[in-house]
Design a protein that fits this description.
The complex is a heterodimer of chains A (111) and B (176).
Chain A lengths: L2 H7 L3 E2 H21 L3 H26 L3 H31 L13
Helix pairs in contact in A: 2-3, 3-4
Chain B lengths: L1 H21 L3 H21 L3 H25 L12 H24 L5 E2 L8 H8 L4 H22 L6 H10 L1
Helix pairs in contact in B: 1-2, 2-3
The chains are: A mainly alpha (111), B mainly alpha (176).
Chain lengths: 111, 176
């Protein structure tokens, strides 16, 4: 193994890279929320945003050597599971009532 | 090694997230989201969160995404028409996203005292995690179980046959 390979193998990663990845994932989630036109895909974008925030929680938990950040992620996961169950039930109810999943056609409460 | 693993899985993660936006069929988006969540689990492991990595795969990659794909297939969701969002999304939404991302990135890059992560940092064991969770944070944990129970009841009540469906109700009254 030559020296550069060894150096590459021992390279550390700055935590700011993790935070940047988290920010980019969150932005992608927001963009998905705005451009997607299917109710289920919009919901998936929300899950993507939750995951992005979880990543920054874990990063800060690593930074401060604190367990509570990880426990918070655990709570977020539980809430996300509950949210997914209720949200998908709402989507099924909406589909029964309107026979469509396109968000443009679900406009009963639109001004 | 940490650097290589980070670059590989961060790349997979971003590619999955972008693919989620580009695909028009919901089932393809759901599968991309599974890729994102699984590679995030590897990143958690790199940051020393072994329990969360397992929970991420089981809860997100398993339970939640099975629910999503199940609903996509149950409702037989077709291809969506490709749009670039509504007018308000174009005027306010995308600039706001760009501004927020720029501000957050600037703050992160100028932050002082952020450390580095490497493989020698060790992992937070599940024992450490659970000893805090079940002593100091026992009440929030129990409250969450009540939340899950309410969510189950809500999901059953919402998805029950005939809910919010006038025709379904008339069918049922017709049977009686």
């Amino acid at each position: 193994m030559n020296p550069t390979t060894t150096q590459l193998l021992q390279q550390e990663v700055p935590l700011s890279w993790y935070l940047l990845l988290s920010a980019v994932l969150f932005a992608l989630g927001v963009v998905g929320f705005l451009i997607k036109r299917n109710l289920i895909t919009v919901f998936m974008s929300i899950e993507l945003m939750l995951n992005a925030v979880n990543l920054s929680f874990v990063t800060f938990a690593h930074q401060w050597h604190e367990v509570k950040g990880q426990i918070f992620v655990f709570f977020v996961m539980m809430v996300a599971a509950a949210e997914a169950a209720v949200g998908l039930a709402i989507i099924i109810a909406v589909f029964r009532a309107r026979a469509t999943l396109a968000v443009d056609r679900i406009d009963l409460m639109k001004l | 090694m940490h650097l290589i693993l980070f670059i590989v899985f961060a790349g997979i993660c971003l590619a999955g997230a972008i693919n989620l936006l580009l695909q028009t069929h919901p089932i393809n988006s759901a599968l991309s989201l599974i890729v994102v969540m699984t590679s995030l689990a590897v990143l958690y492991l790199l940051l020393g969160a072994e329990f969360l990595a397992a929970a991420q795969v089981i809860v997100y990659g398993g339970a939640i995404m099975v629910l999503f794909t199940f609903v996509v297939m149950l409702l037989n969701a077709g291809r969506e028409e490709r749009t670039l969002g509504s007018r308000s999304a174009r005027v306010v939404g995308f600039p706001a996203v760009a501004v927020i991302l720029a501000v957050v990135a600037t703050v992160i890059l100028h932050a002082q005292g952020l450390g580095t992560a490497d493989l020698s940092a060790g992992i937070t064991s599940t024992e450490d995690l659970s000893s805090v969770l079940f002593t100091k944070l026992l009440l929030p944990f129990e409250v969450t179980s009540v939340l899950i129970l309410i969510a189950i009841l809500g999901a059953v009540a919402l998805a029950r046959h005939g809910h919010g469906d006038p025709e379904g109700k008339s069918e049922r009254t017709g049977e009686q």
